[in-house]
Each structure stands twice: as C-alpha cells, then as structure tokens.
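Risk register update: the risk of archive-format incompatibility is retired. Evidence:
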Amino acid sequence: MIRINCKEGVWFKFISYEFLTLSRIVFRVYQKYGIIPTVTSACDGKHMEGSLHPKGLAWDWRIWELSSPGQVWDEIRHEAQAIDRRYDIVFGDDKHLDHAHTEYDENKGR
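Archived output:
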C-alpha cells in the first residue's frame, strides 16, 4: 500500500498508470526519510501557457519536509527515467524552488 497526501483544493482529471507508477517511486523514496509525500497541485491552479497540468499530465510535490530535496528528487528522477524517459522531474530552477514539478510528456522523444 502507498499513501500520498493532497493539499486541500488539489483535484485530478484522472490518475494515469504513469502517475500511479511515479507516485509509487515518490512514496518509496520519501519513506526512507519517514515522510508521507504531498501533492500540492495537479489540474488545479494557474500554470504557465503550454503547461501539462490542465491536461492531467503534471503534478507538483511538497518538498519543505526534506532536509536534502535536491538529492531526493535526483533519486526520484533517476528511477522514473530508468522506467520511461518521458518522465520529466524539475526542481531547483527559478520556478521550482519551493516544490518539485513532475510531468509525463507523451510527446517527448517523438
């Protein structure tokens, strides 16, 4: 069993197999640190033009509980992309300092 928390107001159009798989990876890695992961945004909220959030193909995750979020999300990125290169994990750039952004880009590599 996995457990994923959701910030109040988060809503999903659907949960695809790809995000179920990613959620299992996130849960397993966070569990090493005794933390239950939290989705902070999915289809809800305002996102930049071209974002995959409105299509149900991007989720944001809380990172403030982690003492080394860069290390944790590098591990998650490595595991996810070993399964499928279409996973994109973004953390630490100008727009993603307070959360990790994950997406499944169906068009990547085509």
